[in-house]
Amino acid sequence: MKVLEVDGIELALDRRGPDGAPALLLIAGGGQSMDWWTPEFCDLLGAGELQVIRYDHRDTGQSSTSAPGQPDYTGDDLAADPLRVLDALGIEDAHLMGMSMGGGIAQSIAVRARERVRSLTLVESSPAGGDRGDLPPPSLAVAATWEEPEPEIDWADETAVIDYRVDVERPFAGPLGFDEARVRALATLEVRRSRNMASSMANHFIAEPGTSVDPAEIRVPTLVLHSADDPMFPLPHGEALARVIPGARLMRLGGVGHEIPPPAVWDVVVPELHRHLLHT
């Protein structure tokens, strides 16, 4: 991993795969560090033919942080950071894969800087603007988490913070169940590597939102990966993306929740991603 200093901020990244190969840039969801894109998944995606780049959003991992509850950036800043990463690495264009909020960021880049985008993969995401239609809300279990008072966390207590990070993920699981051992391992890695978990868990969700874009204006090959059981953005959100983006394809997943595809579905997801990424 390395930390770039660009435009007065620090952005941590990890790059895997052959130098000079076409690039795949992975954009995580809100409050997620790069750790949720596991090295094993990255290596499978790259297949020895792509350089796969993952990075920490601001306020996650080893990237720049602001005080808890006081983000010093906007959603538009978060949407500009992937281009800062590509510029710093001297990469003219890349495949973009975004999860949830990361999918919104990827849509924004594909509309505003389409010459920088080879293809899009939108994972458990939702239209970032335009005519969204009447889309269903999150599940009651997910919505209930927003109504509950924030627990008192001793952010200096590593065990308590890891437990909290695991618990945050529980309502987003799908019918395959909550893989606590896997999530706990990822949460432990993230907590131990992050500069300020209090900021990570809050600031993305209270920052000024980014400017909306109409996904109907996207003109790059697009694959939509969406679970039939996503409790945050139910399947019609993915169907809406596939409908409004010209030529987009929808791959429906079963059993998983609102998450980066877990190992249980790699056998079906990875071949589809290879067809999309390696032939675009």
TrEMBL record:
Molecular function (GO) terms listed? triacylglycerol lipase activity
Gene3D superfamilies reported in the protein's UniProt record? alpha/beta hydrolase
Q: Name one GO biological process term.
A: glycerolipid catabolic process
Q: Which residues form the AB hydrolase-1 domain?
A: 22-260
**UniProt cross-references to PANTHER family, sorted A to Z:** AB HYDROLASE-1 DOMAIN-CONTAINING PROTEIN, HYDROLASE, ALPHA/BETA FOLD FAMILY PROTEIN
Question: What's the name of the protein?
Answer: Pimeloyl-ACP methyl ester carboxylesterase
